[in-house]
Protein: non-reducing end alpha-L-arabinofuranosidase
Amino acid sequence: MIRKTTILLLAFLALFSAAAQNKMTVQVNKPIADIQPTMWGIFFEDINLAADGGIYAELVKNRSFEFTKPLMGWKVQQKNFVEGAVQVVNRPEKEDTNPRYLQVLLQKASGHDLGLTNEGFRGMGVKKDITYTFSVLYRQSSPTGKLNIELVNAQNEVLGSTSLTPEVADNQWHKQSVSFKSNATDPKAKLNIWFEGDGKIDLDMISLFPSDTWKNRPGGLRADLVQLLADLKPGFIRFPGGCIVEGFDLAQRYQWKKTVGAVEDRHLIINRWNTEFSSRSTPDYFQSFGLGFFEYFQLAEDIGAEPLPILNCGMACQFNSAELVPAGQIDPYVQDALDLIEFANGSTDSKWGKLRAEMGHPAPFNLKMMGVGNENWGPQYVERLKIFTKAIKDKYPDFKLVNSSGTDPSGDRFDYLNGELRKMNADLIDEHYYRSPEWFFSNARRYDNYPRTASKVFAGEYASHCDNSFVGAARNNWKAALSEAAFMTGLERNAAVVSMASYAPLFAHLEGWQWAPDLIWYDNLHSYGTPSYYVQKLYSNNKGNKVVPITLGKDVVAGQDSIYASAVIDTKTKELIVKIVNASGNKTTKEIQLEGAPKLAKAGTLTVMQSCDMKQVNSIENPAALAPKTQPFAPKGKMIKAELAPYSFAVYRIGL
Structure:
């Protein structure tokens, strides 16, 4: 009898334990942290043809002949070869910005006697019935004739054409433009310029832009890529990088002052990703800075994101040259930071505020924060950071600074910097982690024991990296995205510690990438968000502003039975939002009991991403192969019955 009673008791306890494991509790009326408006943002770096050849809509490569090889991207076309018909010339008065131009000697040219062809960035993506604007800077002392402009496909069939006759002949530089439409869509078009006439003409800044840019701005950004960013509803945008901030050496570092003002006066430099990876060498990768700091600020404003510029701290990449400026000679770098704040926020009577106004934005951009250095480390970084911090805080006490914790989320380098930065009461400590999916699953508790009231964390660069058997866009598979979703429950749960987070890198051209995985992939005409993109979108579009506890038993939900969860309240819409990841291959059901909840709405929405194929990716051909699907659901009293599909990420949203 005793044995039978014991067996029954054990069976009862087993059932009770199983029931307990299937029951989660959300304490709706006990918020534990505020979620910052900047919680989920985006990180932009000019890698993988993200700027020129990507979001910057210019179609002409090497438009000002400033590449190391001046005619890279161009081909001179001659029916009868004439030595010196086309020459690259330097002008000393533009030595620091745009010294080179093209000099063309015409000898009664007509038809296809003499011309130029530009290949674009892996071709030019042109669309039927879209207007394209051709522009050029020219100089001539007497009328020379005209330029016949045409877009052609791979078979040299004309897709659209026009002509431009330079109007002024006073030996001064002038800009002229003309527009025409394409009669077909082609991803690999080329631009031809055929010369007609006699005499000498100088050409520079040869440009071709589509009219369907973001907000239809002339010389603007590629609309489909900006729309993908806007749809994320990001709290911030960090720019311009990344490693390009540091440069291979200091000569190649990013200098914001050389990226503002007239486009033709911006100082093109080589992109450090040009030769960074021998297996992905990209010798035609340069930075024209048509997308410069003014355009970054404007983009942030357009998509409702706080701007977060990162500036060089007098240190080049420590993995490459490790060049640095002596601490006693760092004043110009510090002044650059102070001047940038003036450019963004200063009155139109100030030097840099006046330039902002002249560029078309008299109102301030309301810059509130800045990063000093990118992935820099060691005592030399701390020494320079202290100089920057004092100078900026003395003038702008409420201005927030982002400080680097190095390249890795653990180890001696991280421990040293984390300790030093916390002694300095750093505003934000920038932590980076490019790790395996297993690391992300196992680190959902990373911030559970961080101090709540000290320096805040900026998860500035992170992405789940599957093993190297996955190449290029194949690395952005469901396993990677699901592990990021699990990790992000820990970031959200610890919003008292983590103020900002951004996936990295952001963009990649399918034919011009150096680094993978990336959030958004594209070719010359199309673009798509990866599964990781949709995970980011589900978090940022369901952000809320108060964290509330969600527990399994008395513990946070961070991997028990392969389940991860977080819960937030949106006090503006008066909704509860619960995010749950099932990282196992088994379907499971969890009861979510809502304690302290007022009366619930009769129905809410359930949005799910799910696939049993952990290698599932999106593509140009099938951009929504794995994307969120939304349906209604109804609670039972104050309980949500969560039926979690294998390998799924679910977002429950219900009104209170």
